[in-house]
Amino acid sequence: MPKVGIIAGSGFYEFEGVDTVDIRTVKTPFGEPSDAYRVCEYAGTEFVFLSRHGIPHHIPPHKINYRANMWGFREIGVERILSVNAVGGISSVLKPGDMVIPDQIIDMTHGRAATFYEEDEVVHVDFTDPYCPELRQAIFLSGEEARAELKRSGVYICVNGPRLESKAEIGYFSRIGADIVGMTVMPEACLARELELCYAVVAVVTNYAAGIAAKRLTTAEVVNVMKASTGRMRKLLADTLRRLPAKRTCGCSAALREARM
Ligand code: HPA
Is the Cβ atom of 207 under 6 angstroms away from ligand 1? Predict the structure, then answer.
């Protein structure tokens, strides 16, 4: 079974042009994942693909079973997860179509099941750097090779949704240091860490966040910009998969070592 998973959201539902060689359905103690896990092959590399909102897109961000999705990946042997996310651009240097590899997170979600350690054990995983450095490095190198312009840092602020933000909220998020806004990286990133999985995000700016440009936001805009980036994204992800060392040398696989009370 491939050890790398890709989870993708709005506008990126399947890897067109990629062979699906197996389909795995997984039952978890936390319920059902968003969809079946597809084992895919592309240019000699294998990975496991999951559509975060299901196929067709029917699960809103606040209803995604994040725990089941992450648990399912681990259950079938995945150790590293590349996450593809549509985001709104807050920072003035960002425009639709840009790709950002964020290095930080601010969590504004509420009411989501955000830990595997609810009852029997008290665990506080370190989240100083929320994303895997080894995965991020592999993405950077692949971006360089493809001459794809990637923003190598950025603060992703995660809102609960499903509504979009007000102008005042985006103004506030900007003042507290957020560069991009989306609805799905939390609690996904911290659940991955609790399972000692590597996790990194490739975000595509699909729109200017509310009030940044003088027009209303539409979901069509989000999906269309994401679809227009599919070719670039597919190449970037495939190159990243090929580049990853077989053995993990980051700290993600030992995330629980000093986390238990
Ligand atoms: N806000 C929140 N989530 C998003 C946006 C946005 O502007 N664009 C894509 N996902």
Answer: yes
Binding site membership of 94 for ligand 1 (Cβ less than 6 Å): no
164 lines ligand 1 (CB under 6 A): yes
- Classified as helix, coil or strand, 26 is coil
Q: Which amino acid is present at 181?
A: V
| CATH number reported for the structural domain that contains residue 81 in this entry | 3.40.50.1580
Q: What separation in Å is there between the alpha carbon of 190 and the centre of ligand 1?
A: 20
The predicted structure's pLDDT at residue 144: 87
- pLDDT tens figures, 76-102: 999 999 999 999 999 999 999 999 999
Low-confidence ranges of the chain (pLDDT < 70): none
* Contact predicate 102/131, CB 8 Å: yes
For residue 85, tell me if it sits in a domain: yes
Question: What is the token pair recorded at 234?
Answer: 């597919």
Evaluate whether residue 261 is within a structural domain. no
